[in-house]
C-alpha cells in the first residue's frame, strides 16, 4: 500500500508538471531528421554509389566505417529511404533491408531477417545456415528485384569468427539470374579489415566511405537544431548546450553521446521539478550515462568476449591480483565446457583480451619474464558489481557469475 502511494505521488507530480520537453523523441538515436548537418559529402557519395540500381544495374558493394556517433547509420538509412521513394516513383524494382548484426546476434538471425524482407518465412531455428541461404537465394531470384542489404555493426558477426554469410552475400550475384544484390557493411571498428577473410574484403570494399568524427562546433550545431524541436522555449540554457557539445567532442566527436547527454540532462531537471536545464544537470547526466555505458558495453560483447571477462572476474575474485594470459585461458576453457561451447585458441583469446583493453574494460600490460619470455598481466578496469549487473540477466551466463572454477580451487589447494 505504501509503495502504491509513493508511485501515485511520482506519477501525479509528473502529470501536473509542464516539464522541459516538447518532444524528447527527437533526441533518441533512432530518430531520423529531415536534414543531416555536416554529412552532405557522405550523403552525396553514398547516393552516387547506389544510384545505378534505379536503372536496373547492380551497384558496388560498400564498406562504411567510422567511430560510434559519426552518423554512419543515419546517413545510410537516410539515403536508402530516399532511394526507395524514388524507385517507387519511377517503378524500379528496388528495395533494401537494414539489419543490426549486434542485435540479431547470429548469422542465422541476420539471414532470417533478409528472408523476411522478401516475404519469405523461415523458422526461428532448426535449419542449417546453408539451407536458409539456399531458400533466400531462391526467394530473391523469384522476386525479380534489386536488393540492397545494409548490415550495421557487421563486426559483431565477423569477430565471432564467422564471415560465411558475408562471403556468400558478396558472391550471390554469380548464382542469381533474375535478381541482383549489393551489400553495405557498416562498422564502428576501424581495424575490422584485420578480421575479414581476404576474399570477403576484396568484394566488400569495392567502395569505401569513411566518416570522420564531428568537431565541437558541428556538434553544437546538430544539438541546437535538435534542441529547438525537443525543448520548450527557454527550457535549455546556452551553457548546458555548449557543455554537451564540448564533452562529446572530447569523447571522439560522438553525436550519440551529445544527444544522450542533452536528453538525460533534461530528464534529470524534470525529476527535480526544475523548469530549466543547466550545466549542473549535464554534469549529473554525464555520471549516469558513464555507468550505463559500461553496462551496455559489457552486455553487447560477443559470447567469447563475455567468457573472457568472466574468466578475469573469477581470477580477480579468487586471488585479488592481476591475472596472466595462461590463467585466463584455463578458466575460460572451463567456462566454455560448462556452456558446452567450443573454446577458441589461446592466440584468439589473447586477441580478444586486446580488444577488451581497447574498449577500456580490461587493462592488459605486457611484462617481461626474463628467459621465460613475455606475458600479459591483465586487470579489470570495471568493478565486479558492474559485471554482475551486466551479466546477471543473461540467460546463458547468469549462472556462471557464482560458479566456482575447479582450476582455481585446485590452485588454492596446491598453495596451502
Instruction: Enumerate the strands of the largest sheet in spatial order, edge to edge or round the barrel.
Output: 2-3-4-1-5
The CATH first-level class of the largest domain comes to Alpha Beta
Shape estimate = globular
Unreliable parts: 412-416
Report the total helices. Answer: 18
User: How many strands, which pairing sense, and closed or not: the largest β-sheet?
Assistant: 5 strands, parallel
Helicity, as a percent range: 40-55%
Distance from first to last alpha carbon:
54 Å
The number of strands is: 8
In CATH terms, what is the architecture of the largest domain? Answer: 3-Layer(aba) Sandwich
Number of domains: 3
Mean pLDDT: 87
Percentage of β-strand residues: 5-15%
Order of helices and strands: HHEHEHHHEHHEHEHHHHHEHHEEHH
Alpha carbon gyration radius: 24 Å
Indicate the CATH topology of the largest domain. Rossmann fold
- CATH superfamily assignment of the largest domain? P-loop containing nucleotide triphosphate hydrolases
The assigned structural class equals: alpha/beta
